[in-house]
Amino acid sequence: MYRISNIMKNIGTKILRLRPSGFAQNDNGGVISSSHCGRAVRNDKLKKFVLVLPNIRSAHNVGAMFRTADGAGVDKIYLCGYSPVPPHPQLDKVSLGAEKTVPFEFCKQTGRVLTKLKKMGYNIIALEQTKSSVDIFDFSPVWPLALIVGNEKTGVTKAQLKYCDGSIEIPMRGHKNSLNVSVAAGVAMYHLANKRA
Q1: What secondary structure letter does DSSP report for 164?
Q2: pLDDT, tens digit, for every residue of 14-42?
Q3: In what side-by-side order are the strands of the sheet with 24-25?
Q4: How far apart are the C-alpha atoms of 2 and 144, rounded to whole Å?
Q5: Residue 63 belongs to what H/E stretch?
Q6: Residues in contact with 50: Cβ distance below 8 Å, sequence separation at least 6, in sequence order
């Protein structure tokens, strides 16, 4: 544990000790909210990574993205439009508690969230096939980064793309031209998370 702790401190990550109360204790003995229990919290504010989910129809997809976001170390999820919001029976069942460990915020209007993130200095990237989209495996992210993942059927809309600094796509090598939204988001989250390590 000592060796892992030293490695994590060297990359700017803090290990939290769990307390029986369901809250976590930081290195200074302070208590932080249960929404961060068991998560390694990054100290590096410049490399923040958030996920924006506008109008995701399926609670199962949102739940899966919460669970993957927890595993990939995403800092926050913004739920917009009619995306299901915890607590929600189907979402909670699929996320297996990740809705309690990944901070999230709901805002009806996606544009307001994207404007806010832009003002905070985020580089906003759409996971969408466009004329100018870059292969995700050739993409060099600029931090802090907000990844916007679109609706299952319509993807990231033209109105939402106007807020974006660029778009990335996952190369498709079979007969289908897209992946399930939660699968695509999972590929993107882990790939981008590895780039900020």
Answers
A1: -
A2: 444 433 333 343 343 333 333 444 445 45
A3: 17-18, 24-25, 31-32
A4: 30
A5: helix 59-72
A6: 74, 75, 76, 77, 78, 117, 122, 144, 145, 146, 147
Closest by CA position to 192, among listed 117, 139, 149: 139
- Tokens standing for residue 186: 């999972």
pLDDT tens digit string along 108-166?
Answer: 999 999 999 999 999 999 999 999 999 999 999 999 999 999 999 999 999 999 999 99
- Written as one letter, the residue type at 126 is A
| Closest to 143 (Cα-Cα) out of 128, 165, 158 | 165
Query: Quick check: pTM over 0.70?
Result: yes
Residue 13 identity: T
**Which of 41, 16, 8, 42 has its CA nearest to residue 143?**
42
